[in-house]
Design brief:
Radius of gyration: 17 Å
Low-confidence stretches: 183-187
Number of helices: 12
Largest sheet: 9 strands, parallel
Strand content: 5-15%
Strand order of the largest sheet: 5-4-3-2-1-9-8-7-6
Mean pLDDT: 93
Number of strands: 9
Shape: globular
Helix content: 40-55%
């Protein structure tokens, strides 16, 4: 089975044709448990997410703030494995038919084996990978395997990325470009403002790929603000915090479904 990069592209194009931004949700695999994480992913799709990024928990997540770090710690202490990440992707995709990506740091893939990882992700129905710490100039081998298996390679750009660097990144990425709205780590913010808008403008000048903005969006008003200038709105910490704060799994799953519905309304208000 080849991966679902075409499904991802069609989904983002479909949102654009409806005159709106796509809603992309992030949840880590294995949190609060493997089964609970799968339920949460299905719930955000049910609430209105177009795409979900499944996080591969990592012991040193340099891009992630305290909320996601806490969830990753819980998953790792419970013994989450790459097989559980693949199972999460497979069950979410089979239940919904919607695009599921994996967001992971490079070290776990390197240790697992690039061919093994890409083959298993494609077989599970995955649409691709977001690789926040893989330098573009060192990505050739990964991209060859990803292309062979029909997987997107999504790179992250930041406000500090110079124009020539943006052009190099977008020239080799696929699926979409992940624009980190702020310098710093993931987490909810009071405002996601002008820096993100300028980064989207500069990135679009180098590529026809959709540009999706993450880091800081936590409510429908912020989603609408970002949807006014981006092709997709990425929300992670706000979902994870609801799961962390919930007294039990069912309450957490219901809460993330509800937030997804609010955000889905927000991206339609651009």
């Amino acid at each position: 089975m080849s991966g679902n990069i075409q499904l991802l592209s069609d989904t983002l194009a479909g949102a654009r044709s409806e005159g709106r931004a796509a809603l992309i949700a992030y949840l880590p695999a294995g949190f609060p448990t493997v089964d609970g994480g799968i339920d949460a992913v299905k719930a955000v799709f049910d609430g209105g997410a177009d795409v979900v990024e499944v996080g591969l928990p990592h012991s040193d997540p340099v891009l992630d703030g305290p909320v996601i770090q806490t969830a990753d710690d819980i998953a790792l202490k419970a013994g989450v494995r790459i097989a559980d990440v693949m199972r999460t992707v497979r069950e979410a995709y089979e239940a919904t038919g919607k695009p599921v990506l994996v967001m992971t740091y490079w070290n776990p893939i390197d240790r697992y084996g690039i061919e093994r990882f890409t083959a298993e992700l494609a077989e599970a129905g995955g649409a691709g990978c977001i690789l926040p710490d893989l330098p573009v100039q060192e990505s050739d081998v990964w991209r060859q395997h990803a292309d062979k298996h029909g997987l997107a390679t999504v790179f992250v750009v930041a406000p500090s990325s110079r124009d020539d660097r943006l052009a190099k990144i977008t020239a080799v990425g696929s699926g979409f470009v992940y624009a980190a709205s702020l310098m710093g780590v993931t987490g909810t913010r009071q405002s996601v403002g002008a820096q993100a808008q300028e980064l989207v403008r500069r990135t679009r000048a180098t590529t026809d790929l959709p540009v999706c903005v993450g880091l800081g969006v936590s409510d429908a008003a912020q989603a609408a603000e970002v949807a006014a200038f981006a092709d997709g709105v990425i929300v992670g910490s706000a979902f994870v915090k609801l799961m962390l704060d919930a007294p039990d799994r069912e309450t957490g799953v219901a809460a993330v479904r509800g937030l997804a519905a609010e955000l889905a309304e927000g991206v339609r208000k651009r």
